[in-house]
Amino acid sequence: MRALALFSGGCDSLISMKLLTMQGIEVIALHFNIGFGGNKDKLEYLRNASAQVGARLEVVDIRKQFFDEVLFTPKYGYGKYFNPCIDCHANMFANAFYLLESFGASFVVSGEVLGQRPKSQRKQALDQVRSLVREVGKKDSENTDDREGKSSGRFDKILDTKGDGVNKPKSLDELLLRPMSAKLLPPSFPERAGWVDREKLLDISGRGRTRQLEMVKKWGWKHYENPGGGCLLTDISVAKKLKDLSAHRKMLLQDSTIVKVGRYMVLPNGARAIIGRNESENTKLDEPNPSMEKIILLESIGPLGLVEKDASKDDKILAARITLGYAKNDKNAQNKENNDEISPPPQNQTQIAQKVKIGEEVYEILPYPKEKAREFLLLK
Question: pTM for the complete prediction?
């Protein structure tokens, strides 16, 4: 028997997988990359943690699908920030079920705990996720071959929508198992069919972590993360940037980067600009984005900047001056603090202009004082 488990990296996911491997069930840990899981590379941790419980890790990139189909149009709305948690969970389940046959698995597992999170793990929310998953199975079974009028759904082999629910489940959500709170929820098909021993599953609820941490200690795990957090869509700064940029213009998938890193600025004529804060952010901002032009310092060591392609010339030059103002260069120290205009300074002020490339154009401009650039920050 083989199961696919949603693996965020958290402690609850690990315990859920451990409960199944202890029953002799082979578990494949699916880590779905939605593009907002965090700014740090967790691949080594994910491999070590999943191997620790006897599961094999598979990383699946669903960034485009999540961005196009879920992020901006969630059926059940957002949480406190820009987090469509209910729709996101259901979408991960749907993607896991789509992979069920290719991995030769029989059901899908989640580390969700009843009542642990106010938005996504209330009883009502868990039922809403099940409803969305059920709808995925229903729509799939309604696909027919036009020539023969027969169902061509990918779940035909595992579902019997018109049966008695004994030999095969009638709906896709019946193949969804939540081991952490299984004894507090109606038995899933894997439990009813005897694939999983329900008595060896748990009855955890609420926001406490005591029992989870006791199990971690008991098993002597070295690799685990405490439950809660981790998704950047619940980060207030990322949420505010997403709200601002999506209200400003239609976002592209590539914009996911510019709401996660850098100094996000709103310029006088309405353009958005992003200024890197370190080498790591510069590397991420250097990825191509059809909506943005790069600001490259030609005579200084410093940040990479981005400004919208359709920005006014004044906004582009200001964005470049701000970028230059953050550069590490001795020339900047010679510029006076009151040079805050885009136009050239009076002749009696000592200034040193520097070459900066904006898109394909090269300009000689003056740095803009960092202290005064703060007024353009979305998050001050």
Answer: 0.86
